[in-house]
Amino acid sequence: MSWISKTFSSSIGRKIIMAITGLFLCSFLVVHLIGNLQLFKDDGGQAFNVYSHFMGTNPLIRTVEWVLVLGFGFHIYESIVLTQRNKTARGGNYVSNHAEQNSPWQSRNMGLLGTIILIFLLVHLYNFFYRARFGELDPDINNNDDLYTLVATSFKQLWYVILYVAAQIALGYHLIHGFRSAFQTLGLNHRKYTPAIKFVGYAFSVIVSAGFAAMPLYFYFFK
Amino acid sequence: MAGSNPNAKPMNLTLKVWRQKNRNADGQIVDYQVKDISPEMSFLEMLDVLNEDLLRRGDDPVAFDHDCREGICGSCNLFINGRAHGPEAGTTTCQLHMRKFSDGDTITIEPWRANAFPVNKDLSVDRSAFDRIIQAGGYVSVNTGGVPDGNEIPIPKDIADRAFEAATCIACGACVAACKNASAMLFVSAKVSQLALLPQGQVERKTRVENMVAQMDKEGFGACSNIGSCAAECPVGISLENIAILNREFLSAKATSNNLA
Amino acid sequence: MILDSKIPEGPIAEKWEKHKFNVKLVNPANKRKYDIIVVGTGLAGASAAASLAELGYNVKAFTFHDSPRRAHSIAAQGGINAAKNYQNDGDSIFRLFYDTVKGGDYRAREANVYRLAQVSVNIIDQCVAQGVPFAREYGGLLANRSFGGAQVSRTFYARGQTGQQLLLGAYSALSRQVAYGKVKLYTRTEMLDVVVIDGKARGIITRNLITGEIQQHSAHAVVLATGGYGNVFYLSTNAKYSNATAAWRAHKKGALFANPCFTQIHPTCIPVSGDYQSKLTLMSESLRNDGRVWVPKEKATAERLRKGEIRVSDIAEEDRDYFLERKYPAFGNLVPRDVASRNAKMMCDEGRGVGSSGLAVFLDFADAIKRNGADWVSQKYGNLFDMYAKITGENPYEQPMRIYPAVHYTMGGLWVDYNLQTTVPGLYATGECNFSDHGANRLGASALMQGLADGYFVIPYTIGDYLAQTPPTPVTTQHPAFAEAEAEVRARIQQLLSINGTRTPDDFHKQLGQIMWEYCGMARNAEGLRHAKQEIQKLRQAFWSDLKLVGTSEELNQALEKAGRVADFLELGELMVDDALDRNESCGGHFREEYQTPEGEALRDDDNYAYVAAWQYTGDNQPEVLIKEDLQFENVKLTQRSYK
Prior knowledge:
Chain C: Keywords: Cell membrane, Electron transport, FAD, Flavoprotein, Membrane, Oxidoreductase, Transport. Chain C: It comes from Hymenobacter metallicola. The complex is a heterotrimer of chains A (223), B (261) and C (644). Chain A is an all-alpha fold and 223 residues long. Chain A contains 9 helices and no strands. Chain B folds into 2 domains: 11-121, Beta-grasp domain (Ubiquitin-like (UB roll)); 127-140 and 151-256, Fumarate Reductase Iron-sulfur Protein, Chain B, domain 2 (Orthogonal Bundle). Chain B contains 8 helices and 7 strands. Chain B has a 5-stranded mixed sheet. In chain B, helix 3 runs antiparallel to helix 5 (185-197), helix 5 (185-197) packs antiparallel against helix 6 (205-218) and helix 5 (185-197) packs across helix 8 (241-256). Chain C is of the alpha+beta class and 644 residues long. Among the domains of chain C are: 270-408, Succinate dehydrogenase/fumarate reductase flavoprotein, catalytic domain (Flavocytochrome C3, Chain A, domain 1, Alpha-Beta Complex); 480-630, Methane Monooxygenase Hydroxylase, Chain G, domain 1. In chain C, helix 5 packs across helix 13 (447-467) and helix 11 (366-372) packs antiparallel against helix 12. The longest helix of chain C is centred in the last third of the chain and has 25 residues, at 558-582. The two termini of chain C are 42 Å apart. Chains B and C meet through helix 1, helix 2 and helix 3 of B and helix 3, helix 5, helix 6, helix 12 and helix 13 of C.
């Protein structure tokens, strides 16, 4: 094994991949959230469709898309490998364990939160991404694919809204731990800056998840 | 006056204790009653009472590790009511006193659980994995004699203090026991940080962290997921900052060392 | 038998240098042909094992702990002395030597103590190089504090955990040699006998505490670094597993035991709270730098305090007796340990003790907190204060600590010559296990110094002298002496398991402790000692006929381990009493009530008792034979110790 594969198959190496891909996915969330704010524009979805057309056709974006796929792929793959390894390391379970007294719930349940997010992601990709990219959508007045209408009708279904909101709550908790944790894993812990990282991480988690959750709620209640 | 309170009311308790004959046997929880336990007793003194009672009755006493009973040797290691070293923060099992419990309480006592810490018997586990991690590099390679005068290596007080704080780890293993992942990174990071902070540790800085982490993985400990249980349960307050330092040291060593293996 | 201490000729300051030149050397290529067994991995054992392995010898290191780092050296709090004179306050090698001989009440061997003071400076350098995080001044240089029995500041420290940091230093050096394959480490392995062949130590018999397996180990030399025997008293500041078995087995195989009655009672320990008490906890002597020791002036006040009718704060300043400051104005609260302990006992005997039992005095930090603030006190003694609070449930920042003396250290031990060799050739004893350097009383911060001096800087030279005169042919366990020793060990274990009586090992141990504390503790007299001797004999008989054990020897059986150790304590305890009875004088930790000055100070008899009392084992239940090594004082004038 070369030193590179050895480094990244070690316990710390795998954590570093988790951290780097995690932060990369955070940056994706920011872009995705900002873009999707077009949904709130009261223009019958024209701006949003322009944006989604751009995202679906721009060669640079299409390239980065593959990087994103890799980011998700590595993040998920490493999480599975680490979870397996950690389960084996733990061995048996305690008869009585009060971990809630020494650590936050979300920190101990990143795998569960991640799985919820993954299930959501598959539904989300099938419903919007797959149908936008590979399906047949009606054109809007600018002759762009009318993804907006698909979104608007989807978010009129109660089960769909519930799934979205629940997934965003999971994402929020996932981020509360993940954001701060990524910095720790990369060794960026300093008594001067860590409190700020913690605060930013918390704010980031709340804003991102609330921002995404606002979309289905907006359509369900106000459209 | 507390601490010598003659009026402290004795307690009767139910103990649920993990009994396991040896490394390969299956274990189980066995219930015991202990009576007239003084709140001034230490937790281990309460177990002494149980063991004396068992022995007199011809039953096998409960095996558990302990020695100094001053919170410094790191021998004692009980998982009490779902917590490493019991309910009181910053305390080893031997320094936990019965005044933290109430009459009629049921107390569950288990050994540390981790694949890298096999059970010897009952509550005693094998922590030699920690020794092997230190043997992999937790030292400065100087032979006896031929070293410079102590004052020829000035060390800023704050650095010396931080190195000291990392060096106070007692290797009890509570970090591993409390961690969902049975990760030993708090233990490893304490030694790595201590020596990375000090000028004496610079010469072997890169090889040390590479070798210690490799050994840690080889022993079958889990990977840190920054939960924080370890630091919360650490009886001597080793900080999570050390794990960040370990990660940093590891990354920079891997990136810059001449070791191609 | 005539004891030859092998002290080199010449002026005291040159003895060690000359000796190092005169000892025979083993050539580097031959070193790997020699095997050395080191039993115990505390400061003395770990440092010896590491240093010997570095030289090229094959070392086997044994500890009954699960890791070398658990040895009780780890619990030493206050610090380590060294004659560095970094503080420019008049310290020197001679002064450290002088203070140590005087502190030991002139019952230590001058040459050994001088060597100890000489190598003390190397220890600090060695530990710093290992990365031991000693306390530092703001300029980055090493900090010092003062300790009892000295008027200079020469104690190096790492907050209240100096022993821990030094042990971890030695442990790291040992670990490095384990990694190199030069040390083979046996953990959870207890030594149960020495194997002597043709009068020379050639190996040991051990028991694996997890599997119960009995093993034979051979070597060209055996080093015992197995600590002291303070646990004879049951209640002491020693760790629960600390025991005398290795030293006692060696004694029974021919090694003389020196000054067994010299036990140190440490003045600042947390008082006993009940009969369930399993051990006593020491609060570092360094606390006496800033804490003031006092009891109420009036017996009546103390009585009301004990009953809870008044509180500490109700006692006015003028009604407090700072008895150490009053009686010893020059040293005040920093008098040596034996003096501080005895005075605390006197106060309690007068009925002025505090705490519900009346067996405690106050150690008060109110002045220090007023002078420098609670933060300053916390920075200096934080961990000790926390420990006190955890154990007693009281906050020492708000009310004075209660302290009482407790057995802490044993100055006596296996008799060794200048080379640290016992009377069995090839068998060495280092650290607290030997008797050599502290006389009748050890000064604070000197135990760590001695353990590391022996291990790092003495034994590596002196053992070579012996090995150079031993052929480098392999020593194996083929000799029938090994099988014989193993059979004895097995028989003894079976005997313990087969008694099937009614009393537990702890039960016997507690009773022995009570006898020892009552009659051979802080104050002793001939009548009490004679009584104690009978009591111990009776108890020993009861032990061998009424001991209760369960299980087998082929498993982890902690009660069985304990029983073996108690059996040895029951023999050693009697020897301590014999020794105390023989020494018709008071000196250091040995206070015979019949021999005291009108002010109640220890009264030595230098004309008749300036000797090391070395005892020879002659058979089970036979009186031991006393062999004297006369002490010569050429550099220190014998005076009545005065700390006034």
